[in-house]
Design a protein that fits this description.
Pfam families: SCPU (PF05229). It is built from one helix and 22 strands. It is mainly β and 316 residues long. It starts with 14 loop residues before the first strand and ends with a strand.
Amino acid sequence: MKCAIGLCLLCCFAVSEVEAGCTAAAVASPAGYGTISSTLVRTVAQNTSSTSAGLTCTPGGIALFSTAYFKATITSAQSGMLGPTGDVIAYSISAGTNGTHPITRGTAFDFASNGLLGTTAPSIIPLYFTTSINNVAAGIYTETLSVRWDWYYCTGLGALGVCLGSDSGVNKVSTLTVTMTVANDCTISAPVITFGNAPVISGFTPVSQTISVACTKGSAYTVGLSDGLHPVSVGGRRQMIFGTNFLAYDIFQSAGTTRWGNVGSARRASSTAEVNPGNGLGTGSQIFNYNAKIYTDQATPPAGAYTDSVVLDVGF
């Protein structure tokens, strides 16, 4: 190179180029809530997430260049996770944790303009899901979401900020399944049985009370009462104890004389409840009446505070 007069100048512009590209595909792993009791589903919002919403990019490019966008439009033939009895678990979708950056179904959401991607093309994009309060039957609930992706971004910039290359996609669809298993559950209210005080066996009066059970919507169940800690025999008289002394008593179904036990026909079916008989209601209680009495065909034991412990169980 020769310069005849003056200063010879040589100038070049640096160039930044990155091989990059994005693809949309079905998400292999579902966004799974796992197994949740119906009581929790009915009373507390549940959260889960998917590490991928179906778009995978080779890291690189300039994702926040002025014209860059990564848009997801989520749709489904359902309005939420559908269960075996037709119940639906509704939930919201967001691009950020704790419900931040909510996504509306059927409306394109741009992850780039919402500041969720940093400065380069994302390798994966997560989604977050939060249920509303739902009173539903037990079973497996699922929904398959269709995620339409549209994107554009620069894959390389010149020193003056000129876009040297780009990657784009239009109407590329991925699918993502959201699933939850709802387990049968109950809340139970059972008061203490107190016979009071009496100087002789004949002085004790029967006690009539109720047990309140609220079980999963649509569930058929039975309620059993154990034989206590000191039964005369299996399925025989229950006994309270004080020291080495015993006081025989029992618990009977409703106002009758049929013993309430925990095996076979001695259990009580949900269909026999005195209030709201039938399958579980989820949000409402079913009431079971009982009467308890101390047997009068026994000798009066020594004075003392006699106690026993009976286990109530619900079987589905």
